[in-house]
Amino acid sequence: MLLCDAAQVADGKLYILGGGWSMTGPEPVPSAVALKVEVDWNEADRTHHWELFLEDADGRPVLVQTPEGTQAVEVRGEFTVTHPPSVPEGSPIDVALAVNMGPIPLPDGSRYTWRLMIDGESLPGASVGFTTRPRPPAD
Q1: What DSSP designation does 94 have?
Q2: Model-level pTM?
Q3: Tally of CB atoms within 10 A around 62
Q4: What average pLDDT does range 53-74 have in this prediction?
């Protein structure tokens, strides 16, 4: 997982703009999470469900106001991989995912984490944290 300004997937590869940051703000800006998932050979040919959750420093869901009311910041999707013909049997199969978000209004001077779950399981190392910069003092 990598935080970046923007990302896209083309031909199975991740294209990343402004990647590798861990501080943002204090003003809300667009951002993205770039993901490379290794799927076990035996997990191919079935649909996998993924969920990406934004949590605060205490592990609680981050809530924002939307036209539909207060909602948690989360993204969901699915992917399916097949056995590539040129890859040796038993090899992991790569899946690239790019999740782009508009500006999210977050309090300044706080810590957050994007947490990924696949098929309902949190995977070791499947999270990436960042901090919002404190707002400069008013003149």
Answers
A1: E
A2: 0.91
A3: 20
A4: 95
Specify the residue for token string 């800006």. Answer: 29
**DSSP states of 2-54 as a string?**
EEESEEEEETTEEEEES----EE-SS---EEEEEEEEEPGGGTTSEEEEEEEE
- pLDDT-derived band of residue 124, with 50, 70 and 90 as boundaries? confident
2-4 and 69-72: which strand pairing? Answer: unpaired
Structure tokens belonging to residue 79 = 């992917």
Is it the case that residue 102 has pLDDT exceeding 80? yes
Burial of 7 (0-12, 13-18, 19+ CB in 10 A): buried
4 token code pair: 């970046």
Q: Which CATH class is domain 2-132?
A: mainly beta
Instruction: Quickly state the pLDDT bin for 80 (edges 50, 70, 90).
Output: very high
Task: Give the number of residues written for the chain.
Answer: 139
